[in-house]
Specification:
CATH topology of the largest domain: Rossmann fold
Strand order of the largest sheet: 2-3-4-1-5
CATH architecture of the largest domain: 3-Layer(aba) Sandwich
Helix content: 40-55%
Radius of gyration: 25 Å
Amino acid sequence: MKIIGRQHEKEQLMRCLTSKRPEFLVVYGRRRVGKTYLIREYFNNQFSFYATGLTDEKMKGQLRGFNASLNTYGYEDKSLPTEWFDAFMRLRKLLESDKVYREPINNKRVVFLDELPWMDTARSDFKSALDYFWNSWASSQEDLVLIVCGSATSWIITNLLTNKKGFHNRVTRRIQLAPFTLAECEQLFEHNDIVITRSQMIESYMIFGGVPYYLNLLDSRLSLAQNVNELCFKERGELFDEYYNLFHSLYDRPDKHMAILKALAKHRDGLTRADLSKEQEIGGGSVLTKDLRELEECGFIRKFSTLTRGEGEFFYQVIDPFTLFSIKFLENKGFDSWNTYINSPGYNSWRGNAFEIVCLNHIEQIKEALGISGIETKEFAWRVDGPEKGAQVDLVISRKDGVINLCEMKYTTDEYSLDADEYDKLQNRLARFQKETGTKEAIHITMICGNGYKRNKYSGIIQNVISGDDLFG
C-alpha cells in the first residue's frame, strides 16, 4: 500500500474499522483528486463488496454492472435484477452469507460503492432503494462499513449531506478529499523520479494545483515547461480538454458554474454575490446560492469576509490553480505553445495571481513559519476604496496574541527586493489599514517570497519574511 500523505483521511478510515457502530462514510471531492485510489489502496482492494457506477448508462446497464459485481463476490444468481430494491436485497443476502470476506483488523464487512451518483439514473428509484437498504438493515449491523464515493459533488451534497429526508443524519462520517499540499507534491515527485527544484514545484502547483492525477502525468524526461506544453497545448495531450471535462463530470448543468469562475478569474481580488448576479450568464436567486456553495465545497473558490465591509457581506475568489490557468491560457488560446506565453505581460500577471492562490492554499504552513501554529487566528482579506488612494491586502492573519500579519505575496524569477515605489505602497497600506480598522494591535508586515528575499535599505518596514521553502513545511 503506497498512499502519499492523506494522514487525516487514513485516520478517519481506521476509525471506521475500529468503531463499534455501523458506519456510513461519504467520500467526495473534485475529479482526479484520488478518491477511488485512496479507498482501494487503503483496503488493498479487499472488500466484502465493490461496485462502481457506469458513465452514461441507463438503469438497465447500471443494474447489469452491479449484478456482475455481486456474482464476482459470490452471489450465485446470475439473472439480472429488474430494479434497485431487488439489487440491494441481493447485496444484503451476499453480506449475510458465511463466506463473505471480512477485513482482518476488526472482522468488519466493508462495502464500497464507487461513483454512486452515476447509479442514480432517471426514474430508477435508486435513492429510495439505497435509503431502504441502509435504514431497514445496514444501520443495525455493527460490523458493517458502507463507503460511498463520487465526483458529482452536487449530487453528493444535495442527496446525502444536506438531504432532510431519508439520509438525514444517516451519514456517520465524511471525507472531503482536497488536492495535495506542496509537501505531498514533493513526496509524489520523488516517488515518480521527477527531478525538479522546489521553485519549479511551486510553478507546477501554480498550473496543476495539487491534483495527484495531473502530477502523475509528468514525464521525468521533460522539463516542466515541456510537460505543460505536451499535456495542455498539444491536441492529443492528456489535459487538452480537461477543463471542460472536469465541470461536466461534476455538475449536471455546469454552464453557470463555469460562468461564475470566468467572472471571478477577471477579478483577482474577488467579487460579491451581488456583483456576480449582475452578470447575464449567471443571474441570481437560489440557483446562484447553490452553485456558489458547490464550487466552494469542491475547493474551486473561497468565500471570505473583509475587516471593513458590512456584516454579512462576503466576497468570492478563485483559489483553484488549474481553473485559473485554464481560463487564462487554455479556454481561448492566443498561442499554441506554453513557451510562447512565458515572460509575456499576461504570463507575468497570471504568475502573481497564481502564487497568491498557492499561499491561500497553504495558510497552515504560513502560520507554522511564523511560529503561531498553536495560536487561534482568523484569516481575512481587506480592501478599501474611496476618494483617497485605494489599498488592499489579500491575506490578513488576525491573531489572539495581539498581532495582525498583513501578508504581501511576491513571486519573481530572482530574489525579491523592495524598491522605493513598493515601499511607498506598503506605507500607504499600513496607514490606511490602521485608519480604517482602528485596530490597537501590533501590525506586522509579512513578505511571502517564492524565490527568496533580498534585504536592502527599504527592508526596515518588514517584520517577517517567509520563503518558498517554508510553504513545504
